[in-house]
Amino acid sequence: MSSLKDEITELTNQTKNLLEGYGAGDTLREEALRASVPKLMDLITRCYKQRKFHYSLQLIAVLQVVGRTLEIGRIEAHAYTLRGIIQHLLGLFYEALASYRRAVTIYNKENYDPGKCTVLQRMGETFLALLRYQEALISFERVLQISPDNIVCLLGKANALDLMGREAEAIESFRRVLVIDPENKSARQGLAGLGVEV
Fold first, then answer.
1. Is 92 left (phi over 0), alpha (psi -120 to 50) or beta?
2. Residue 50 pLDDT more than 90?
3. Which long-range contacts (CB under 8 A, 24 or more apart) does 43-46 make?
4. CB burial class (10 A; 0-12, 13-18, 19+) of residue 22?
5. pTM of this structure
6. Contacts of 85 (CB under 8 A, 6+ apart)
7. Which of 183, 169, 177, 179 is nearest to 194 (CA)?
């Protein structure tokens, strides 16, 4: 049975070999490169779950190149999003923001709102971690313009507003969450923290 490191090395080498020989119109290599994407994603997820973030980052770099080479922006943008998530977990908040910004730029070109919403939500969380509440609020509100019932962003918005001292607006956001999910513990705790009975 091969080790995780061996699997990573093997898949990385296979993908790099495919990338080296790839040219426009090379359908066999293109199919093989496309087939490598779910394999890369599976290994990235396994490494992430095992908290082997250095391996995840190594595989994400390969995924980025595959996306760029195949000119599939969503793959490249997703790789930047994954990179940002890991950077955030490692406390590399400014690096995470840079990765998220790259992803948003690509998703804007692709006009792909679901991916953009995920990245903006993550940006908001990173801005909160940096105590940059206004920027967090802007990120969450951008998602809510696309997806008004996004509970995570409503909670993020409420927390940012609360931390900015805008209690009435925070209460309104927490209450909006309870309209969507009446049993939401975070919203109930947030309201209780603001002295509002639920």
1. beta
2. yes
3. 43/4, 43/7, 43/8, 43/11, 44/82, 46/4
4. middle
5. 0.90
6. 96, 122
7. 169
Q: In the structure, what pLDDT confidence band is assigned to residue 76 with cuts at 50, 70 and 90?
A: very high
Residues 57, 79, 86: CA angle, nearest 5 degrees = 45
- Number of Cβ within a 10 Å radius of residue 145: 11
Q: Is 92 exposed, middle or buried (0-12, 13-18, 19+ CB in 10 A)?
A: middle
Please tell me the distance from the alpha carbon of residue 81 to that of residue 104, in angstroms, as a whole number. 9
Cβ(174)–Cβ(158) under 8 Å? Answer: yes
| Tokens of residue 126, six digits | 């990173």
Secondary structure class of 128 (helix, strand, coil): helix
How many helices, marked H, and strands, marked E, lie in the chain? 10, 0
pLDDT on residue 1: 53
CB count within 10 Å of CB 55 equals 20
Asked if 85 and 47 count as a contact pair (C-beta separation under 8 A), the reply is no
The answer to whether the Cα torsion of 179, 182, 186, 188 is positive or negative is positive
> What is the H or E stretch that residue 80 is in?
helix 73-89
CB 88 within 8 A of CB 125: yes
| pLDDT beyond 80 at 2 | no
